[in-house]
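Quick one: structure tokens for this chain, please?
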Amino acid sequence: MTETERVRRIWEKLAPKYDKLIKFPEWWLFAGGRDWVCSQATGNVLEIAVGTGRNFEHYPADVRLTGIDLSESMLGIAKRTAESLGRQADLRVGDAQALEFPPGSFDTVVCTLSLCSVPDDRNEGFQVERLERLKWGIVERVVARKPIAARPS
């Protein structure tokens, strides 16, 4: 079994109880985090490891949202969350390590509380603009952007 498949199986089992399990840690450790991240999203947005859709209510109304997750069970819950909020979202099974989108498809990429479940989280090709450590150093906020290509002279 690959590491990705192992992670997929874990999330398939956790999906039905994830929202209940994350409620207290999210309040205690991550309060305001989803607002902070999603408020910066613009244009075509890709959310990596969209999970149950806990970020959906925090996005600006005008973003065009695509979400991927390894777990079909998590996506099933996310689809219901999107419907209940009236949020249009293209939700699909996908692997953050092997994205199936053409380069330049998205203006913003969002990833919250999920890098711990990506076996190889190199964040390759991006430059870190800001890094903050909160809550005794165990919560990390990162803003990274694709470098602007050098302009011909």
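The chain is about 30% helix and 20% strand.
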